[in-house]
Amino acid sequence: MSKNKITAVLGPTNTGKTFLAIETMLSFDTGMIGFPLRLLAREVYDKIIQKVDASKVALITGEEKIIPLNAKYFLCTVESMPVDKVLDFVGIDEIQMCTDHERGHIFTDRLLNLRGEKLTMLMGSNTIKNIIQKLDEDVEFINKQRLSKLSFGGHKKISRIQRKSAIIAFSTEEVYAIAELLRRQKGGVAIVMGSLSPKTRNAQVNLYQSGDVDYLVATDAIGMGINMDLDHVYFSNLKKFDGKKIRRLKISEIGQISGRAGRYLNDGSFGITGDCGEINPEEIEFLENHNFPEIQNIFWRNSNLKFNNKENLLKSLEEKPDKDWLRRVGECEDEKVLKYFLKENNSSIENNSNILKILWECCQIPDFVKKTYGHHLEVVGKVFNFLISEEKKVPNYYMKKQLSMLDKLEGNVDSISNRISNVRTWSYVSNKSNWVENQDYWIERTKNLEDKLSDRLHDELIKTFIDKRASVLAKGLKQDIELKTEIIEKEKVLINGQYIGILKGLKLQLDLKVDALDADIKSLKKAARQNVGPEIINRIQQIIDTGLIELKDDFKIYWRSDPIAKLIPGSDYLNPKIDLIIDDMIENNERNNLNDYLNQWILKKIETELNSLIELKNIKEENPELRALAYRLYENNGVIKRSNISEYLKKSIKMIGKN
Fold this sequence. Notes:
elongated; alpha/beta; single chain; 5 domains; 22 helices
């Protein structure tokens, strides 16, 4: 093992460790960094080719390989790091991943065996310092302090969670349920899950970063390397299924995810929501101070395998470590698959080192789909059989058949995600050296298909989890942005291009969806009050200024073609009351002004058009028979059958004759 210098750059999230590693690598003539995610490797590759000639920079991941002939710098996933290269600088990011059950042994192998000629840099959490100190090498520790403060924000209802927040869940079902609730209450969310393709995940992150949505719902995939403008992180759960059992998150895992809140110099907070279990005071103190238990041992698996026969291969794979701080990992997926094939097809697999090497490589095809284990075994078996056949490659016809079944854009979020996962499998196969016929063609074909499906998935996520209207209104109201109101065809109301209802006269009929929550309605009403209220007040003024109103046979007063008030019984029919047909958002001042105007208008109308009835009511005649006759006429709106009042008429005529 080389005794060259190791620098361990350790500290919590948001301390600039990865930035330091990139700058240090570029100060050497050659170098390589291994990242825990394909997404991160790609992100750093894109940054570096802005500074360095692209012909000197390589990207190597399971599903993507860009390797120029004279590459000097290599950005890789940890699994894909070419271990035989002699380079000045080697860096490994998130080195505490040595404790991950499925992938930890790879990180441990790199920690123990991969070195730069001049400098090796290990970046990660302080928790692994104890392990790195056990290396019999020249190690310099650089302790990085977090650039901003992280504090506990307690429990909050989902409906009360602030903008620029991420809510963490640990199953697809939970992510979707929370996203749907936030869509209805806050207008929409972006989604980040490990199962999303890098392109979809980046598109969702950009959706949040651009301010189109203010909330993010994510799995613990957010905990590693996704740098976002987040102020708050809330846990909806502190338990996760780790592939074997449901367990509570370790305090260091809570810290890794919480640390995504408050980036660079901005302070952040973490809290809990929904039915999440409590974080106790001692844990809160650890999290706020980034003080986590030291790692005592890390996962290890022998990487120096013997392929001379099946028994020796299995025996070498099961070898135990020679140090007490190394822990032999339980069966990983690739090991399970190998044992399945050696057990099920023992007689058909030759005891030939080349065949066994090919089988072992095939067993390491990742199971991106993770739903039907039988399907994964079938894929591994098919690829293996092609590679040991006469042609020694996966043929064009087979690749074409697999991809044609996946080249469909219809379906919901789950079905598109499933298709992408399957495409990623064939992308991995295509990128393996000499595994497929026409390798360049299938690399390009799988990449284009993944991109096409990823764009479709992004669109479907937007359609499913963003209510554009609620999002526009909520954002405008919270950020005090002036919203643009349009009234089309004199009644259709649009606020910032979003249809919210119909303004009939002085009353707004909101366009409420069947599943509208109280929060939707409140948001709509608040936006309407701010933006439609002034239009209604303007209409009231027009009515008062122009008097262009009319009373129709249905006892309603109309402005244009819409009723603005109706007459209801008063003390008598010459003194009706007015009931305004006006929106609740209008304050009493404006209501009173309109009410006073309409009362004056109807009074004038009665005085003009029903003057003779008013005179009948107010008659000053001394003759009781005439007064009685006038009253009967008034009571009957001035119309009465002559036969019904013949007696009154006779008596009245006699009285007139006497006078």
